[in-house]
Amino acid sequence: MAAHETMKSLELAQFSRPQEITPDLRQELIDCWTAVSNTGGAVLAGGFPLPPVSARDVGPVVDQIVDGLDPRRGRLLVADVEGVLAGWLILRRDPHPLVTHCGVVNHVQTHTRFRGMGIGSAMMRRVPGIARDEMGLERLGLAARAGLGLEDFYGKLGWVEIGRWPAALRVAPGDDRDEILMSLDL
Predict the structure, then answer these.
(1) Other CB atoms closer than 10 Å to residue 181's CB: what's the count?
(2) pTM of the entire predicted model
(3) Closest of 168, 146, 155, 98 to residue 121, by C-alpha
């Protein structure tokens, strides 16, 4: 299937409450994250080990994310292509009182079967509207792992690199990467 055909059937859905996540969607989130992590994706979270990971590693972290959904504080954005989860991300309001006008985008991932089809770009183009219009946010931030071209991906979508934490991420022994901090004014 050509990329433009896939994009015709792309649907983005937003979830803001734990009870909205069905067991099937939960399993799709786990399967996506497992596949992304095990193919070298940059989406690694505290709470599970470096790859290879299994559903047993990822499931509890997905459950924590789902439990944190709240219309005021956290949203899950899911990309669906022809009834199949193609990608997802989390948008959160920063809980600290001094920065509640800011949000953070985490766990941006496109399932390995759908890479290169514009799924990640479509999700990231939708995020500012949700953040600004539905959550009342004024600025978004995210952190990305250097060495994968992610700063270029986000830069093309209007995000600006605001700093780096040199060698902050140890992907493997002898493979330290910068953590790239990026911002988007809404």
Answers:
(1) 16
(2) 0.93
(3) 155
